[in-house]
Amino acid sequence: MNNLSCTRAFFLCALNMKGSTTLTHSIEASSCLLASCLLELLEGNYLIYDDKQKMFVNNPLPADKIYLAPVYELIRINKPMKLEKIAEKYVFDSKKANALFQSIGHSLVDDGYVDKANSKGLFTTKIRFTPKAHAVSQVGESLRKAVLTEQFIPDDRIALVVLLNKSGYFKEHFAKDELKVLKEKLHVLKQTDTSVLINKLIGHIEMILVFFISSIN
After folding, report:
1. pTM
2. Model confidence at 122, in pLDDT bands (50, 70, 90)?
3. With contact defined as beta carbons under 8 Å apart, do 61 and 68 qualify?
4. Contact, 32 vs 166, CB < 8 A?
5. Regarding the domain delimited by 6-216, which CATH topology (the fold level of the hierarchy) does it fall under?
6. How confident is the model at residue 134 (pLDDT cuts 50, 70, 90)?
7. Does residue 127 sit in helix, strand or coil?
8. Cβ burial 166-188 (10 Å sphere, 16+ → b, else e)
């Protein structure tokens, strides 16, 4: 994954190989994307929780994390915010969801992982992001090697495994026998105390997903 964060790697894997103008067609994909952004901001200490489990800005967002700006700025302006409120903003305001989609997509275009083109609709023209096949393949191979063959699994790989599992994209990038091994390892990690950070990552993702999906329902 090299210079790809978990958020950008997930976005790349979630794009349709023929191009996508949104991820909001899938509740799971859009909720996982938001969950990953929040997780990355929390783990980077750009956001923190207060004693009432509300999030607020803790540190400035650096240039290499600018693709997270739509989520960061929402919380900075409306601080402090609970997870439910953040999810609600993205559920009921398509402009916010689109701004996040555009921000991450353009960051991947700038780094050569994705191509972009205008896609004309009936009333508007949207930007379509199309992943480069070799880039998607590299993410898959890196994840496959880390999870299936290495003793130590980096935290960002574990987070990406959880996101792909929750969003339903596992089957698009891994063979059936590989899926079985991945899910077994994920289950073991969730049941052990061998890595506090890994369990914290998984806990954050699942908690955010619960709030996001319940807001939609």
Report:
1. 0.88
2. low
3. yes
4. yes
5. yeast vps74-n-term truncation variant fold (1.10.3630)
6. very high
7. strand
8. bbebbeebbeeebeeebeeebee
